[in-house]
Amino acid sequence: MLSTGFFRADIASAAKQGRSEAVSEPSWAAFFSIASIYTLMAGMIWPALFWRMVLLTSQEMLVFSLACLLLALCVEAVVKSPRRPLDFILEKLRRKGSLIICGLTLLVLGISAYSTYKVNIPNIVPYYADPYFAAIDKAVYGRNAWRAFHELPPQAGLLIDFFYTRVWPGLLLFGVLGGLLFVEGRTLHRYAWGLFFVYAVMGTLVATLFASVGPIFYMDFYPHAPEFTRLKPALLENPYISDILTYSNYLLDSYQSKQLGFATGISAFPSVHVAVATLSAWYMTGFGRRWAVLGWTNAVIIQYGSVYSGWHYAIDGDVSLVAVSIFWIVTSRILGLPLLPPART
What is the pLDDT of residue 155? Predict the structure, then answer.
């Protein structure tokens, strides 16, 4: 079954710890220290906005995440210890409770910090880079990339919308919560550093240096450029993906009115959606072929959908895919981890 990969990872990691004392597991101190600095800086520079984001993020994510953790823990207890499930749960919490609490806390604070930085990008670096990214896409595709990507039938929008709004956040949350419960040691460290790289380095630092809004907002910020006049009408004419304009209007209204809510802020380059999808794909590859197929299918559809929907230029996702892959390969070598799971014999 698909789900056995994570359960097996929990058993395998515990076994490895018992038989490979020579390989020292990295400490969490460095990760939590650096991630805390990233979070605290947002709270110190924009305290009112940061704590508003913490409240909104907690309302949107915390209760649901706790419910998912509890459900997964109960299922694991029934599967692995049907005669004494409560003892199993208590032992698991004794062994991993501190990590779960710290991980959930950092998840809420980290997402809040990322949102705080994101909405302040134009206050630090005014949006300027869109014409350059649009020109790159045009040089590669001979026209605006969204036009090339819209050659698929309109029904493709249904698949793109499903993966963008359901599968992508589901895999992200499942990766974090599943990692806290079932994954140990260096494997979990690699994924945690990957998330930090995606959100803090790419989604904050690089996004600020190359401040851009994306094709869907091009006409709102560059009204005298005709390149994207047909994008919004094309989205509106497609009944399978027209809801995108509802969310884009929400983001634009939030930007213009300064009434900031959950998941607001405008930023195109690099694509955090594609970066997270690529990270999830590499992470899931380590748990077996079925997980790899799901992960990379999601990554391909998110990359295609990010351009199809107008959120991103093609270069946004290309850079994210390459950068995250390089980071994953280098981190794997540093931690002494394989890119692929060992073949079964």
Answer: 86
